[in-house]
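Hi D.,

Good news: the full-assembly prediction came through. Inputs first.
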Amino acid sequence: MVMIIIDGQEIEAEAGSMIIQAADKADIYIPRFCYHEKLSIAANCRMCLVEVEKAPKPLPACATPIADGMVIHTVSEQAVEAQQGTMEFLLINHPLDCPICDQGGECPLQDQALGYGGDVSRFSEGKRVVDDPDIGPLIETEMTRCIHCTRCVRFGQEVAGIMELGAIGRGEDMKIATVIGRTVDSEVSGNAIDLCPVGALTSKPYRFTARAWELASHDAISPHDCLGSNLNIQTAHDTVKRVLPRTNEHVNECWLSDRDRFSYEGVNSSDRLLQPLVRVGDRFEEVAWEVALQRAATALSDIGKAEGPGAIGALASPTATLEEFFLLQQLMRGLGSDNVDHRLRQRDFRDDSFTALFPGTELPVEQIQDAARVLLVGCHLRKELPLVALRVRELCRMGGQVAALNPMDYEQNFPLTEALVVAPSALPAALARIAIARVDQVEVPEELRQWAELIPDSEEFARTAKMLSDVEGEVVVVLGQIAAQHREASALRAIASWLAQHTGIRLAFLPEANGAAAWIAGCVPHRQANGDGVPEPGLNVSQMLSARLSAYLLFGLEPTMDLAATGNLVSALSDASFVLSFSAFRSAVPAQADVVFPLALFTESAGTYVNCDGRAQSVEAAMDPRGMARAGWKILRVLGNYLALPGFDYITADDVRSRVNLSLPEVVCRLEEGCPLPGAASKSVPWSAESQRFERVVDVPIYDVDPIVRRASSLQRTRDHSLAAVHMNKEQLLALNVKAGDSVRVIADTDEVRLTITPDDRVLDGCVYIPMGSAATAPLGGADYIELKVVR
Amino acid sequence: MLRIFIRFIKTYFLWELLRGLALTGSRLFRRKFTVQYPDEKTPKSPRFRGLHALRRYPNGEERCIACKLCEAVCPAVAITIESEEREDGTRRTTRYDVDLFKCVYCGFCEEACPVDSIVLTDIHEFHFEGREGTVIDKAGLLAIGDRYESSIATAREHDAPYR
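Then the structure:
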């Protein structure tokens, strides 16, 4: 610590920090444009010039390290003159048409021009004009307004990991332009909008629709991934105008992924369901809430009496809130059925009785950048949890190493020390190889050896194991969504747990969306709220669909796209005598529904989200629900009253929340000791060009994860959307004698879709990549093997 | 004694009334100030703040750029604006409503407008035949602007030296 004097105020500051940092800590204002606390120091805007005693000229406060006894003046004549001079130069080429600029009213340049600018321009020459490139559906450009602070460039380079924007040219000719492709496709690109201190980069969907001063701000939590990013929802005239990040260093820092930032367009979608519906013949009729509730209650109690409560099953979308999960399971258990589940895309439930209270990360998210090694297993981290990927990138910048074991050579935005790519069916075997190589001097269980022997040993497994050992600091093994949705997910979890038990390695089992809250609230067939057991476990998702129940409650999901087991879906819903759908969107209602309740979305409903750290975050509703839609917890509460179930007298969401213990212990997600390792699956059928049978790499693309995101129109125009195709590598294209753009019939069991071929060298031989989550691939569900028939 | 006598005279000979009649009589033959409204009208200041109008440029393009400064400055919250990007990429309003019952005719909107689009004309004779007429929408405001553009422009020209 050193003592410095700023404007006569004695300040103790950390040695080596910059003047601007010391001043910020002491709440002394220094104007700035290019300096940002999360980015490197560029010192190219010169707005922060201050007078330092004994220095011949004013010095930039952002790039001048403090020294003991330094005397600094930020408002002296010399400093102010320098700042005013800088402002005059900045305004030379900046247009003076704030009223038509979207940044007007929230623009640092506008604000600081008021403080430091002259009242009349002395510049009478022509101003610089720069073309506005179209850089994608999310960011609008007006590059004439750019003041070359390079915050966007530094963000891409340093934080996002992909330098999509760069500064081209020098002096008057300098301009910010895309340097790789023509568009900015990063999944965190929207942060450039927040960073830009002028109106050069603004939000395209929000463009010209509102002014900062007319917007009301509300706190919200993002429901799209298990990070629970803190949102600032800004509304006007009862619509969400835009979403900004709310800084929370433990969760999202000051960033936001594009999915969280632009998904509000789904909330404003014209597809919203505004009125309860009941089936009359083969069409739906709009009815009052009382009619719909009465119809649903009567049908449910009739089926409960006639066929037993076990004939009723409930499926919840993992994006629901803790309160909704709790009330749904309370309703089902009140009816006498344990058939309630939220793990819509999970297919392997064999380890249910050995799972921890909830899946999560044993190393808190905010400490991930301080870890030494990370192994990603079945995890496209960059698209699954874009903001955690930024922290992993930070880890790499600090000297950590990351390895990935994936069914496809996913592009990550951090360097991979080892990129292991194996066929999807070989994921457990490869993890077993790494685990055996990493854990020595411990007897290897027979089942684990069997798993490992499914694939030949290779040098890279040993290298990865070595990478995970012999380091100071935390080592984390992350099992992502591809692992969680794997056909042998319980084997993957068991192998990872065995590895963690015999080493100091920490685990992370990433839940889907608000899945952690669903586990805690008891929205699983084998546990009640707070992890209490049930006498006899109910049916899980896949059992519910194959058991052909008489009544289904579908809470917030779009059945054809949110379920992995879609094969049974249509017949299960058609055979059911009663289907109750809670849906926010008209087109998400299955044709077989009998009663439909319009559901409020995350902006319109109070609720609690539990992220993968076990951090419970509660928010109030930001706005009234659209039309007659109501918050899910209110609908379930009233439905409970209609069914005359005890304990449904909640008045607020807080009352519901208080039934769940949210003072959670430190996350331990590994399987309990004693969990048997499932036996090794048989080897997969080898691929041959003749059979045209392929192993399918399947994941859910970033903008197809839930019904809200699927209706966010701008996100649906990004490059990350157009993935619904058959991706295969070029050798296989030749072997099959097809070319890009050809149409093929893709057959999985009895279902079939027609898709086009896309060359994709990330895919291994014998595999094709066909994502799920979109209408085009919905009939395939999560099928692991598919047959291709070329359409000639 | 004298005071009592004077009071007697004033009381019984209607002195005050006669004085009043004398004043009336004297005014009866002087020049009249009365304006025979609505046949006659007094001149108005170019700064008169009457009914609102939205102006256009001579080429027919609407002036308003949806900056929303008038909405922000309005002390009576009488202006409601919704805006979006027009097909040609310019910033335009899709809705511009003025609630004439809320408006206090302060003229702040006109002062805030950077493009002289919203103006208060010298029209002060307007009426409503129903509740719905109290809010003028964008089309109505532009129609007023189109109809009275010459007088609006003249008034601005007269006032220009003092702005």
